[in-house]
Automatic annotation (TrEMBL):
InterPro entries: F-box_dom. This is F-box domain-containing protein. It comes from Pristionchus mayeri. It comes from the Eukaryota. Residues 1-47 form the F-box domain.
Amino acid sequence: DILALPDVFLRDLMKAVEIEDRLSIRLTCRAFEKLVAESHAGYFHRAIIYQAPADNSFKFYIGGAHFKDFEASDDGFRQSLNLRNRLFSGIELDSFSVNFGDDATVLSKEFVRQFTQNFKIDNMSFIYVLSLEQLNMTREMMTWFPQCKADVSLYFWPGTDVLQALPPVQELSIFDSKTEYDASNWPWQIDSALFFVLLGKHTWLNLNNVAVSSDDLERTVKIISAETRNKYIHIKVKKSIVADWLKSHSIFQSYKKGDRHDQYEVASELGQRTNMGLRYTKATSRPCLIEVVGNAWEQGNTSITMKNFE
């Protein structure tokens, strides 16, 4: 009789089973149903709450288990909370994601708060944040897990003041969902003042349409190389600015791997020289590794990546 085993053993055993197993075990008898509901689920890599696009519904995944769609209403929130409470009393997650789906927020903040009660989360990810309402909801959710690292992907322009007031996150991405990828058509631009505020506050940055000068790129390299923690940026800028910065260090199209120019070493030659890899050799803490995507001596825009770790 497995139920005759010590309670501490049964609870440890329940931490080792999959969510699908919990669903099956709880249907066996009332004793197992009680054990499942009152025991901790253990550790899982990921869970996500996902709002269906252009639909008044949502679903959630935990571990490898996918659950049916629920209506985004008081009744639907109550049904999903009842199911969650019948499956475990608590859970530990490496990653918990909230995907808002579209710009019409239907997820109830109070529902998400109750759903994540007794959760231990290492990383939170807020995907496709498309409105100020969703961003405010995101910021409040971050306060529920103050020790948790957070990633935020914005697909709208909240304004400079809002971005400056955003608390530090692990990764901040700012895109635009309603314009073409060509930066010349974008309705907003990140100037150098805002860029350096974001660079100083957040660990990883992924930004489009950044208006910086060649001197700003040099300053960015020095800031990243002086960091003791991992630092990463990926920005889209004008190719002419990158070319001016490279020329100021006597780096031209005829570079070769291993060449040293001023304070930089050419670290890689990729493809038909469409990408350029550089290493800053005067780092005060960690070497800054730089990759310029595309030919910087052509017209248009390009992406440049800087990081201080291999």
